[in-house]
Amino acid sequence: MSAAEAIEATEALSPDAGTTPMIEVSGLHKLYGNVKALRGISFTVGRGEIVGLLGPNGAGKTTTMKILTGYISATAGTYRVAGYDGYTDSLEVRKMIGYLPENAPLYPDMGVIDYLNFVCQIRRIPKSKRSQRIAGIVSQCGLGAMAHKDIGALSKGYRQRVGLAQAMIHEPPILILDEPTNGLDPNQIVEIRNLIKELGKDRTIILSTHNLPEVQMTCTRMIIISDGQKVADGSAEELQQTSEQARFVVTMRMPDGDDKTAVVDALRGVPGVADVASMEAGDGALRAVVTATGNTDLSEAIYEQAVTNGWTLRELRRDVADLEKIFHKLTQF
Fold first, then answer.
1. CA torsion sign, 9 to 10 to 11 to 13?
2. Residue 321 φ then ψ, to 5°
3. Which residue among 24, 69, 274, 294 is least crowded, i.e. fewest CB within 10 A of its CB?
4. Do 262 and 230 sit in the same domain of this protein?
5. pLDDT higher than threshold 50 for residue 4
6. Is 333 a member of any domain?
């Protein structure tokens, strides 16, 4: 079943299927003996989303992925993939997913074409379609120059491309990628990142990574988990707006003769302002960082204060929190 056919099948499942998420996870728990790997994690992923699954080592990222792919079973909770129940329709779920684990399941003594043909057999792709399917995936993954080499002779970057090719050979509508750029050099990371973004144009993708800049440049959304629980869910911009205290950067010129101390005092008098730190910005201008008492947008109030006092604004913007600091705060207990 191709990606397009899978989406059409999903849309036929219910009258409201046009808005049905491609992945629905509800209250998943996973125990390894007395170790709680997952503690009731829940999330949904829609069509066409590229979602980054983030968390420290041992947070439960790989366990979540293995459950979704049917590799292991959950202790409790439910999940649906492309409308299929993960327990009662496990075989259909596996047809919907292409999976690239952290250590790609490659055979170094096999040639690239031979290996992809072997995967076609496992996926029960008809013989009459295999040559065309392999040629298409080799082209899509940029493997043309390496197609007749043994996998063991390929660089790490090209082996990752072969891993992606095996995950996509059956044209699944969903890709699950575990640390797809791990161990690659900067040039290879850019190549794989661009390939993932291209693949995401007509697929739903979940990828796990420790590389926060990678997520910002690749993913439309991120889910942060820690100790088996979801602690944040949203785009990078949304997470950066969740700081307990909002901060605003203001740069302005005042009328000649205005006392900068009086300007700072005026900013402190704006309702909702907790603190103001200022410095010279050159050319007689003043630069200030205004901290709110909460997560309130003070942009309009600061602008109105500037207009009232005749200040010329050169800059007024919300200072976004560093994503690494947010990640550290959410995942440290």
1. positive
2. -75, 145
3. 294
4. no
5. no
6. no
